[in-house]
Amino acid sequence: LWYAPPELNPPVAGFTPEHAASENGEEPLRGRSDMWSVGVVLYLLLVGHNPFNQALRQGSQEAVDAEVMRLAAQGKFNRSADKWKQLHVDASDFISVMLRVKPSARPSASEALRHPFLLRRVAAKTNEP
C-alpha cells in the first residue's frame, strides 16, 4: 500500500460528492480524506448502495449533491439498511471509523491496516492451504 507523505498536498481537480470527504475544498487534503473515500467504497461494496443514499429523495442532481454534502458534514450515513445491520461488528466499525467527520479522528492508511477488520482478513488468508 502506498500513500503520499503528509508534506505532499496534491491539487484536487474535481470530485464526486458521493465519495468525497466533507472537508474537501475547505482545508488541505492529507491522506485522511482518502480514508473517507475508503469508507464510502467499502460501504458500497458490502451494503450495495451509497452510504448517503437517503439524499436520492431530492428532486434535482444539484439538490442530491447538496444533500450528500450536508449529510456527510454531519456524519449521517445510512445505518438503517438491512445489509448494514447484518455486517460483522468489525466491518461496521471499520466503515464508521473511516467515515468520521473530523479528519484528525480518522486513521492514517498505516493505522487503518491495523484495524481488526483487516487483520482478521489477513490472518484468515494466511492460514489457508
TrEMBL record:
<dbReference type="GO" id="GO:0005524">
    <property type="term" value="F:ATP binding"/>
</dbReference>
<dbReference type="GO" id="GO:0004672">
    <property type="term" value="F:protein kinase activity"/>
</dbReference>
<dbReference type="Pfam" id="PF00069">
    <property type="entry name" value="Pkinase"/>
</dbReference>
<dbReference type="InterPro" id="IPR011009">
    <property type="entry name" value="Kinase-like_dom_sf"/>
</dbReference>
<protein>
    <recommendedName>
        <fullName>Protein kinase domain-containing protein</fullName>
    </recommendedName>
</protein>
<feature type="region of interest" description="Disordered">
    <location>
        <begin position="1"/>
        <end position="29"/>
    </location>
</feature>
<feature type="domain" description="Protein kinase">
    <location>
        <begin position="1"/>
        <end position="118"/>
    </location>
</feature>
<dbReference type="InterPro" id="IPR000719">
    <property type="entry name" value="Prot_kinase_dom"/>
</dbReference>
